[in-house]
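To: structure subgroup
Subject: Chain for Friday's discussion

All,

I'm putting the inputs and outputs inline so they're searchable in the archive.
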Amino acid sequence: MPKKVDERERRTLIADALMRVAAEQGLEAVSLRHVAAEAGVSAGMVQHWFRTRDQMMEFAMEVVRERNEARVTEAVAALGDAPEPRELLRTIITTLLPLAEESRADGRVALAFLAYTAVRPTASARLREETAQLAGFIGSLLPVPGKALGLLALMEGLGVYLLGGQTTPDEARAALDAHLDLLFAVP
């Protein structure tokens, strides 16, 4: 009897290999051959699950999204029922920032994917939708309207600086706290 293969598990194995290649060597090094070698499988197997490099990239970003959602869900649950909006925002943003090694690897892939979508409009459609949803949610927590996009830009900028080594995790947390203090200051 033929062995049953878990499609999601196999695709995730390949996506994880793609993320390691992208995190260690950059997105330009991502190819079917390099990903297959990193995953320890044949190039034919990679092509069986992903016909194109774009399909691999989109699936890898889906895996990063799922990991981020799981981390955020766990961190928010630890806050208990009805956390204050400022603490909820701080928790979400610090969870998404590449402060730990696991989130740094995912952050490198997310940053590479952001650059990738800059030249592929069809690939950026979902990213635009997710950004709009996140901005809407953040905006609903802020006491001042119209500041959500600025907070998202701060988060993205801090993420880039953390990944590039221009700032430390402590400096990033301090910058976030200072900005949240401004946003939540009582007039």
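Points worth raising on Friday:
The chain has nine helices and no strands.
The mean pLDDT is 87.

D.
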